[in-house]
Amino acid sequence: MDERAAIVPIAPPPDPTSSYWQDPPHQLATHRTTNDLPGSASTVIVGSGITGASIAYNLLAQHDDPSVLMLEARTACSGATGRNGGHTKSASYRAFLDNVQDQGEEEAAKIVRFEYNCMKAVHAFARQHGLECDSWEGETVDIIYDRGQWVRAKKAISEIKRILGNDDPAAQHKFHDAPETEEMFLVGGALGSVSYEAGSINAYKFVIGVLGLTLNRGLNLQTDTLVSSIHRSETDRSGWVVETSRGSIRAERVILATNGYTSYLYPPVRGIIVPLRGTVAAMRPGRSLKEGLQSTYSFIYGNGYEYMIFRPAGSTFAGDLVIGGCSTKAPKEGLYEWGTTDDTTMDPEIKQLVRDSAAEYFGSRWGEDHPSGRIRKQWTGIMGYSSQGFPLVGSVPHEQGLWIAASFQGSGMVLCFHTAKALVTMIKGGDDRKLDEWFPRPFRMSEDRLKHKFSGRLHEKSPKNFEGHHQL
């Protein structure tokens, strides 16, 4: 992993795989608010995904930022947000025991509530502003095949209920034994399952909606404008110069909302934030499953998991399944997918594993493939991971005017929206004590966090003291 984490990332390539969510592209995809690139701005945001869009929205809501300029290397929302699996799901219990041990009960509880509240806020925002983004709220289920994962889930959820309280909305989980799992969720061969509140959303349409609202507030969005480097101004040491494919921009403040690509622009986080390429497929369900699913899913085994949603009624291609994962089933547990920022291609073995995955999980209940074929679209996207399993949010140490909100561990839809609110509070010098009441302190950027090199994905494998696989 050390070699993969040390790879120098490339810039977002111009011709990525085509994402299901971005087909067809929205009219804002190639938007440029002004024909010419401004020569200066008070704030430059690099990245137009859910993090960048939400930061811009919060900055301009306060009406005290003279100019906010957003730069996107490709089309709007063409990175991880527009290439994800569609889930809004906070599987907080998976990391909870480690978080209690490493961060203490108070911060561990804060993380659980933060993820849950962020998930709810995304859907509430879509409702409030009438964003047409296929927002669906309901139940998810984690189908568990491995005994160590099963025991850990039982213990973690028991601890969540003890620490948060049985009545806390974020603590609501229900276990199902193997027969009940097969009857309710149409999947055999598992030890059992756990269900809880979650949702799904077309994140591309959600972000396009947020960008539309923010453009109306004065955002200057410049797509197809690759940032090649950032450096301090020679004439004003408190300012920054942003070098782009279309010229230079002077800025008082630069915000990196670049997730897995961050170390391309800021090398000191190389090995701290490490990219991982994920593979996702949108598929037509087997004929026997066409009307059969009422929950979103994760399928959890000894060394990894897959995640899956169904497209809700009223959406384009309603009933389609969107499933991702499978990298740990590949040779060397998909080690070669770490360190890459190339989303123009797919690993052929992982591509096939994803294509086969849903039918294998549902077995005889899948039925025959759709006459038009199983796969509607398949693509890749770049996520960002940190050594401690948390985002890096805040002012970059010893770099006045440089801010970061990145490394969302493949769970951006339950982290980014409220992280943006927290970052803007920090930027505007808000009450730090009030921020601490709801924003987890382990998420904050610090000098100490720059000392922790990435060594592997956390909270995924079966605990060593509970090993014992229950195979499909």
- Number of helical segments? 11
Molecular shape: globular
How many strand segments? Answer: 17
Mean pLDDT across the residues is 94
- The percent range for strand residues is 15-25%
Q: What characteristics describe this protein?
A:
472 residues, alpha/beta, nine-stranded mixed sheet, eight-stranded mixed sheet, 11 helices, globular, disordered C terminus
Question: Would you kindly provide a written description of the structure presented here, covering whatever features stand out?
Answer:
It is a single chain. With 472 residues, the chain is an alpha/beta fold. The protein has helices at 2-5, 50-61, 93-103, 105-128, 147-164, 178-185, 203-215, 262-265, 348-362, 416-427, 432-438, and strands at 40-46, 68-71, 87-88, 136-144, 173-177, 192-200, 220-222, 227-232, 240-244, 247-256, 273-283, 296-301, 304-310, 321-325, 375-386, 392-395, 402-406. The strands form two sheets. Strands 3, 4, 5, 6, 11, 12, 13, 14 and 15 form a nine-stranded mixed β-sheet that branches. Strands 1, 2, 7, 8, 9, 10, 16 and 17 form an eight-stranded mixed β-sheet that branches. The protein is globular and about 70 Å long.
